[in-house]
Amino acid sequence: MRRFSGTNTGELITRYARDGGTTVLSTTGRTINRQANAAGRALILFLDAMRAVREVAGSTRQLLRQIEHSGFGSLLVLSLIAGLTGMIMAVQIGFTLSSYGVADQLGGLIAITFCRELGPIWAAVIVLARVGAAMAAELGTMTVNEEVDALRMMSIDPVRYLVMPRIVGLIVVMPVLALVANAVGILGGLAVASGQFEQTSATYFQGIQNHLTTGDVVSGLVKSCVFGAIIGTIACDRGLTTSDGAEGVGRSTTMSVVFNVIFVLIADLIMTWFIQVPLKVVTG
Amino acid sequence: MTDRPGSRTALAQVLPERTWTKDEIEAAAPLAPLPAGIQPVIAIRDLHKGFGSRKILRGIDLDVLRGETLCILGGSGSGKTTLIRHLMGMLKADVGTIQVAPAPAVAGMPSTEAGFELGAANEEQLATWRRRLGVVFQGAALLGSLTVLENVGLPLVEVDHRPANEIYERVVEALRRVYLPAQEILHLKPASLSGGMRKRVGIARAIIQRPEIILYDEPTTGLDPVTVSGVNELTLDLQKKLGITSIVITHDLEAAFTIADRIAMLYRGRIIAIGPTEEFRHSPNPAVQQLLTGSTRGPLTEAYLQGTSES
Ligand SMILES: Nc1ncnc2c1ncn2[C@@H]1O[C@H](COP(=O)(O)OP(=O)(O)OP(=O)(O)O)[C@@H](O)[C@H]1O
Ligand SMILES: [Mg+2]
Questions:
Q1: Does residue A47 form part of some domain?
Q2: Residue-level pLDDT at B110
Q3: Sign of dihedral through CA atoms A141, A146, A147, A149?
Q4: Å from CA of B111 to ligand 2 middle
Q5: Nearest Cβ partner of A153 from B133, B142, B158?
Q6: Cβ(B78) to ligand 1 under 6 A?
Q7: How many CB atoms lie within 10 A of CB A55?
Q8: B80: Cβ below 6 Å to ligand 1?
Q9: Is A6 inside any structural domain?
C-alpha cells in the first residue's frame, strides 16, 4: 500500500477535481444533453401525432384495439390498488380527524385527494408500467425487425398508423381509469369509515358533498389526459428509436418506464401548482 | 460436372498465376459503358457510408438498367443491406449520390416528373420513388398483429383504399404466385407460419402493388430447394412479363447464375467485380474466385481474420 503524505493527498484531490471531476461532469453533461434531445424528439413526435389526428377516421380499428388493450387489462389491478389506498388513507386520517372531533369530514378529504391526485396518478402508474412498457417493447421489436421500415416503404406513415392511435387511445382511456380509481378509492375509504369509525354511509357521502367540487373532479381528469399523452408519446418514441436487436428492445422498455415515471410526476407537479391551486383559490 | 465455374482448372485457363495485392483486390471495378441512348434507372456514384468510425461502404459506383435483374453477392456483413437501405431512402449517404430516373411513361399517364437525387429528395419525391419500389426484407418484416390477408393487402387498404373483394382477390393471386396455399393461411398470424412461408408472404406483399423495381434482400435464404426454384422463376417471370427491374441480394450462387443478367460482388465496401453472368464467372479477382469456388483460403477469409473495420 502506498501512503499518501499531506501534499500528495492534496495533489490527488486537485488532480481529481481537475480530471476526474470534469470526467464526471462531462458524462453528466452528455447524459443530460442526450436526454434533453430525447425529450425534444418526443415532443416533435407528439406534435406529429396530433397533426395525424385528422386522419383518425381511417384508423378507428387500430384506435379501438388500443383502447381495448390499454383499458380493460388495467382495470382489475388498478381497482385493487385504489381500493387499498383508500382504506389505508381512511385509517391514517380517520384517527386524527376523530381526535379533533371532525371524523364526519373523512369522506370529503378522501374524495378530494383521490379526484385531484391519487386517482390520476395511480392510473398513470399502472398504465405506464403495463401498457407503456408493452408499447415500447412492441414498437421496439417492430423497429428492429424492419417492420417500421416496411410500413414506410408502403408509404404508410408510422406516426399515423402506429403512434397516433396509441397516444389518442391512452388520452381517451386514462380519464376513465382515473374515474374508476376515484370511485373505488372512495368506496375503500367508506369501508373503513363504517367498519372502524362506525360512520354511516350517509355521513360519509355528506362529507364528500360538502367539500368536493366539480373543479376537483374535472382538473383531475384533465391531468389524467395529459398523463395519457405523456405515456403514449414517451413509450412510442423509445420504441421507434430502438436499435441493437433484442437487447435494445429491453433497454427501450426500461427507459420508457423510467422516463414516464419522471415526466408524469413533473407534469403532475406543474399542473397542480399552476392549474389546480389557482383554480381552488378562484372558485373557493 | 466437369467445368465447375471458377474451378482451379477453369481459372488456370483464363489467367496465368500471379499474386494480387490487397489494394488490387479491393479496387472498385470500372463502370461498364452504357449502351448508347440508355439511361440507368438508378445511378450510384461514389457512395460512402460509415457507422461511427466503421466504414461500411467505401465508394460504390453502380448503374442499374431498366428491366434487368442485377444480383449483388457479398459476404455476411459486407454492407449489402446497408446499400439497398440507401436505395429505399432510409439512409443518407455520407458522400456520393444516387440519381434515380423518372418513372417510364404509361399509356394515359405520361411521366411528367424529372429524375432526382435521392439524398436531396423532398418528402413528395421520396414518396413517389418508394411507390415505385417493392421491397422483400431480409426477415420478411411482416406485422405481427395482422393476419396474412391483412399483411399482404395492407398497402391496398391503407394507401390505395381498394374495396375489400378486390383486395381479397389480389392477395390470393399474389400468394398463389409464391406457391402458398392461400385458403389455408389467409387468416393466420405470421407467428404461426414457418420462416420460409413468412418470407414468401413478404414477397407477395412486395409484388402486390405491381412495383416497377423490386429489391430482394436474400429472398431465398432458408427456403427449401423447390421453393427456391419457385422464387427464382417468379423473379424471371416478373421480369419477362411485366418488365420489372430486380435487384437481388443473395448468398446463393446457383440462384444468382440462374436469374441474373448481371452479377456484382460487394467486398470491403466496394463493387470489386461486375458484369454479365459469364463475364463475372471469369473475373480474375481472387476474392471473386474464392466466392465462386467456396474455398476457405483467400482474401475473403483473410478479411475476417484481420477484422473488417478500416480507418
Ligand atoms: N444502423 C447501424 N448502425 C451501426 N452499424 C450498422 C448499422 N447497420 C449496419 N451496420 C453495420 O454495417 C455492417 C454491414 O451491415 P449489413 O446489414 O449491410 O450487412 P449485410 O451485407 O446485409 O450482411 P448479411 O448478409 O448478414 O445480411 C455490419 O457490420 C453492421 O454491423
Ligand atoms: Mg443483410
A1: no
A2: 55
A3: positive
A4: 33
A5: B133
A6: yes
A7: 12
A8: yes
A9: no
Residue B144, pLDDT > 70, answer yes
Tell me how far the alpha carbon of residue A244 lies from the centroid of ligand 1, in angstroms: 11
Q: Quick check: ipTM above 0.85?
A: no
Q: Check pocket membership of B56 for ligand 1, CB cut-off 6 A.
A: yes
Predicted confidence (pLDDT) per residue in A181-222, tens digit: 999 999 999 999 999 888 899 999 999 999 999 999 999 999
CA distance B193 to chain A (A): 16
Tell me: pLDDT of B303 over 70. no
Residue-range domains of chain B with CATH: 67-104+122-305 (3.40.50.300)
User: Which residues on chain B place their C-beta less than 8 Å from a C-beta of chain A?
Assistant: 85, 88, 90, 127, 130-131, 133, 135, 137-139, 141-144, 154-155, 158-159, 205, 209
Q: Classify residue A177: in a domain, yes or no.
A: yes
Domain extent at residue A65:
61-283
- Label residues B67-78 b or e (16+ Cβ within 10 Å = b): bbbbbbbbbeeb
> Stretch A86-90: mean pLDDT, rounded?
95
Shortest Cα–Cα distance, A150 to chain B (Å): 7
* Grid cell listed for A177: 381509469
Residue A157 forms contact with B (CB below 8 Å): no
Residues linked to residue B214 through DSSP beta bridges, in sequence order? B134, B246
Does residue A163 fall inside a structural domain? yes
Grid look-up 403512434 returns A163
Number of domains in chain A: 1
Residue A10 has pLDDT above 50, yes or no: yes
What is chain B's mean pLDDT, rounded?
84
pLDDT at B12 over 70: no
Choose from A146, A161, A164 for mutation: most chain B CBs within 10 A: A146
Q: Residues A139-186: pLDDT tens digits? A: 999 999 999 999 999 989 999 999 999 999 999 999 999 999 999 999
